[in-house]
Design goal:
Elements (H helix, E strand, L loop, with lengths): L8 E4 L5 E8 L2 E6 L4 E4 L4 E3 L7 H4 L4 H9 L13 H4 L2 E4 L2 H4 L8 H21 L4 E5 L6 H11 L4 E5 L2 H4 L3 E6 L6
Parallel strand pairs: 6-7
Antiparallel strand pairs: 1-2, 1-5, 2-3, 3-4, 7-9, 8-9
Amino acid sequence: MKTFNIGDNVTVLDDSFSGKVKGFKNGMVIIETEEGFDLEFNAKELVKITDTSELKGLFGAQNIQAVLKEKELPKKRSFVKEKKSKKEDFVLEVDLHIEKLVPNKRGMSNYDILTLQADTAKRQLEFAIRNRMPKVVFIHGVGEGVLKAELDFLLGRYEGITFQDADYKKYGLGATEVYIKQNPSR
């Protein structure tokens, strides 16, 4: 079991989040991202970064300072006027297939798999609600419909959201689209 201390610099495996450990809650590690968001992760999803020398192996012969500088360079702006904001165009897509959630499912019972998928869906939905995202698509696949039924039960417990089968042309039959009604007074 990995142990973390408050103030540790961490990065999230299989994601682009990094930040500092802020606290602990219900067996989860709370990190504050560089953008100021508080997110909860399982300790298995985090890697402690003590200094940039640990990152050198990831970049091979490249100079770490050159890589960091490249990331800081401002992107050229497009002068095409957009009609909608980027936030409205963004759709959080969450693939709940077990192969996308864990590197190896060997040794996991069907109950363990379903629990992990449901917990992931709940965590991602709450992330979308906290960050005022208007829409989330959960990709669950067709299968026997057990995960879809579990997802429908989970979504039915939330007020202020509606859900339906996602766009067939884009996702096929195995996806559910969730709309989050935003409260303008917040």
